[in-house]
Amino acid sequence: MSINSGDYLLKVLDSLSNPYRLKIISILYEERKYVSQLARELGISRPLLYLHLQRLEEANLIKGDYEVSEKGKTMKYFEVNSFNLTLNPELINILANSLTLKKQKEKD
Fold first, then answer.
1. Nearest 10 degrees: CA dihedral of 28, 31, 32, 34?
2. Angle at the Cα of 87 from the Cα atoms of 86 and 88, rounded to 5 degrees
3. CA–CA separation, 7 vs 61, rounded Å?
4. Keywords assigned by UniProt (predicted)?
């Protein structure tokens, strides 16, 4: 994973700013899992889990693939992508100019 823009850096940092998402990465680092396994292990609903998984996928920290089980059931497995995040002032300085800043409306 290469962080090549300020906006992408913010996306990665935002996706890592939740304890469930950190736990998901920890679990998937040990072994890939399908959604129901992850939900049971974390003690959360599958819809809530999917929200967390989506944020991690958007930041390219994990990936999911569908597989068909021996019983013919389609299951989505997730695994962690390899990444190494080195955050320092130099990186922030390099990427700061590429940030998309939202302009505030001027008060009349």
1. -90
2. 120
3. 15
4. DNA-binding
* Residue percentage of the chain with pLDDT more than 70: 93
pLDDT in tens, 28-40: 999 999 999 999 9
Chain centroid to CA 85: 13
Looking at the domain that runs over 6-93, which CATH code has it been given? 1.10.10.10
Identify the burial level of 86 via C-beta atoms within 10 angstroms of its C-beta, where 0-12 means exposed, 13-18 middle and 19 or more buried.
Answer: exposed
Sketch the domain layout of the chain as residue ranges. 6-93
R_g of the chain, CA atoms, integer Å: 17
Residue-wise pLDDT tens digits, 67-100: 998 889 899 999 999 999 889 999 899 898 888 8
How far CA 3 is from CA of 8, 12, 82, 107, in Å, comes to 6, 9, 13, 36
Structure tokens that stand for 71 in this block: 């019983």
